[in-house]
Amino acid sequence: MTSLPPQPLSPLDGRYAAAVGSLADYLSEAGLNRARVEVEVEWIIALTDRSLFGSAPLSDEQKTELRRLYRDFGQTEIDWLSAKEAVTRHDVKAVEYLVRDRLSALGLDAIAELTHFACTSEDINSASYALTVKRAVDSVWLPKLHAVIEALGDLAREHRDAPMLSRTHGQPATPSTMGKEIAVFAWRLARVARQIEGGEYLAKFSGATGTWSAHLAAEPDVDWPELSRSFIEGLGVDFNVLTTQIESHDWQVELYDRVRHAGGILHNLATDVWTYISLGFFAQIPVAGATGSSTMPHKINPIRFENAEANLEISGGLFSTLASTLVTSRMQRDLTDSTTQRNIGVAFGHSLLALDNLQRGLTEISLSRDVLLADLDANWEVLAEAIQTVVRAEIAAGRSQITDPYALLKDLTRGRRVGAPELAEFVRGLDIGDAAKERLLALTPAGYAGLADELVDRLG
């Protein structure tokens, strides 16, 4: 058997590339290297701006030209770094050589030794990961999450007054509305989104073991912690002053746990909508040309929600591994984080793919209100809660001599289907006031949804 031509091993880079490719700008190896170049270049500019070690501030034109190295970072630089790393066997060292090469091309050899000055690789890496993950989350992942939240909000408002039978433990229960149930997911996701938006993205810039030892040896009169802080914050991320050789990754643990939490809520959404489809509550809108089954022409499978469910399980597992691995580093540094962090993009890719499927899936369903109403009309026994609660209120008000209203309704309804005529006859025979009796006689399962409609307004 002949070998295939080179193929992407991951479906994220093959079948699903169109849906998740935007993450590669940030979370690919090339995206990470571009950020590394950015950090190296900006550190040179920060040092020369302060005229350290006999340097002079670069002109605006020189800064612009130097910054082109990361602003115009492309295939030429990717290939250059690949060839150099094949020799250095060290990714960050290859980046350092690229920056030095660019300095030489610009006639700035005099400041070449300021490249990677007093830095350990993790100074560059921690800042680069903070930048790339922050940009990926802010520019790609969060907007897609908000698009799903917005789609849920639209559905909630559209179906706010559509009564439906609830199913607690899978059994008929007090009615709600479809809009309110959808609103619950939007509410939960918006809360986690706010937590993610408020998270920190931390970097360190303190040398080999986080002590600024080399910095002080080279120039003891500089406030290096303050210079490092202003430099890192100037990049647009947060500064961690107290670290080992590595930034401790706690911000990543927090972020990945929150994204995994959001994924758990989304997984719950996917399985619930799938179930509503199976019950006939939602009809799926046919897509022209699409095939549901290779043998059963009638089928429209809920593939958007099934795809989302599976990808959320994959991403959740990866985020869990990232969080549990990155929280620990032996002594001042071990290398387990390096390999683990190379999968950040894979975790976000599967999560983004799930979000994309959910966003699309939510536009491909139509509520079958007649099915909801028929389901309600077949389950009048759910009004037992209302009846026994009203009876208890009547007892408390001195208008009834019934001794155990819960047991009374339990005997009538538990494990039994009770229709409208039977309930009406039962209510008419109750020892309660006339006003209460009239309220109960007017009640239907479809009209027993409490404040469900109004609660949708809490979404804002």
From TrEMBL:
Alphabetic keyword roster: Lyase, Purine biosynthesis
Enzyme Commission identifier(s): 4.3.2.2
Annotated metabolic or biological route of this protein: Purine metabolism; IMP biosynthesis via de novo pathway; 5-amino-1-(5-phospho-D-ribosyl)imidazole-4-carboxamide from 5-amino-1-(5-phospho-D-ribosyl)imidazole-4-carboxylate: step 2/2; Purine metabolism; AMP biosynthesis via de novo pathway; AMP from IMP: step 2/2
Residue ranges annotated for the Adenylosuccinate lyase PurB C-terminal domain, each copy included: 329-448
UniProt GO molecular function: N6-(1,2-dicarboxyethyl)AMP AMP-lyase (fumarate-forming) activity
PANTHER family: ADENYLOSUCCINATE LYASE
Stored NCBIfam families: PRK09285.1
Main function: Catalyzes two reactions in de novo purine nucleotide biosynthesis. Catalyzes the breakdown of 5-aminoimidazole- (N-succinylocarboxamide) ribotide (SAICAR or 2-[5-amino-1-(5-phospho-beta-D-ribosyl)imidazole-4-carboxamido]succinate) to 5-aminoimidazole-4-carboxamide ribotide (AICAR or 5-amino-1-(5-phospho-beta-D-ribosyl)imidazole-4-carboxamide) and fumarate, and of adenylosuccinate (ADS or N(6)-(1,2-dicarboxyethyl)-AMP) to adenosine monophosphate (AMP) and fumarate.
Protein name as annotated: Adenylosuccinate lyase
Source species of the chain: Microbacterium radiodurans
Gene designation: purB
